[in-house]
Amino acid sequence: MKSAPIRPNQSFYEFIATANPDDQLLIAQSLRGSMPTVRLNYAQTPEQTLQCLVDYTAEYYNFPRLLILDLAIAEEQLAWQLLEAIRVHYPTLTIVMTSLDHRSETRRQAYTLGAHAFISKSRDWAQWKEQVDGLAHYWLKLAILAGQPLF
Question: Which domain of life is it from (predicted)?
Fold first, then answer.
C-alpha cells in the first residue's frame, strides 16, 4: 500500500519516547519548526510507550507515523526489548533511535532489531540541536513515511 506524501498544511501524529524532558522539549520544538501542524505525543517509560501505542490502535487515524525512541528510556536490555516488541506489533511504524552511546555495536543492535535510523547524540547541546533539526528536516520534509498501520 502506497501512501501519499505529507504536505506542509497536513498534520500527522508523531511519538517521542524519552525519559529526558530536555530532549523531549528540544525534539518537539524542532519538529514543530519543520512542520507546525505536527501533533506530538510523549512517553517517558517503556510501559507508557507500549500503552500509548495500544491506545493509538483504537484511534486508527491518530496512530503515529514516526517514533523517536531514546535508548536511555530504560536500562539498555529493557530498551532493546521495547524496540523488539514495537517492531513485532507495529511493523510499519518508522522508528528513529537516539542514544549517547556511540559504539558501533549499539548502532548495529538498533538496526538488527528494526530501527530505521540511529542517531548518536552529541554531548554538546548546540550540536545535538543541529542533529535534531536534521532529523526533523529529513523525516518530516524529505522522507515518505509509511501510511496508516496494518493491524
Answer: Bacteria
pLDDT tens for each residue of 72-98: 999 989 999 999 999 999 998 999 999
Domains of the chain: 19-142 (3.40.50.2300)
What pTM did the predictor assign? 0.85
C-alpha 31/C-alpha 4 separation (Å) is 20
What is the b/e burial string over 27-46, where b = at least 16 CB atoms within 10 angstroms of the residue's CB? Answer: bbebbbebbeebeebbbbeb
Strand ranges in 34-93 using DSSP code E only, listed in sequence order: 39-43, 66-70
Residue type, 8: P
Distance linking the first and last C-alpha atoms of the chain: 13
Determine contact, residues 132/30, Cβ cutoff 8 Å: yes
Cell, residue 17: 519516547
Q: Copy the grid coordinates of residue 29.
A: 520544538
**C-alpha pair distances (Å), 34 with each of 16, 123, 139, 141:** 15, 23, 10, 7
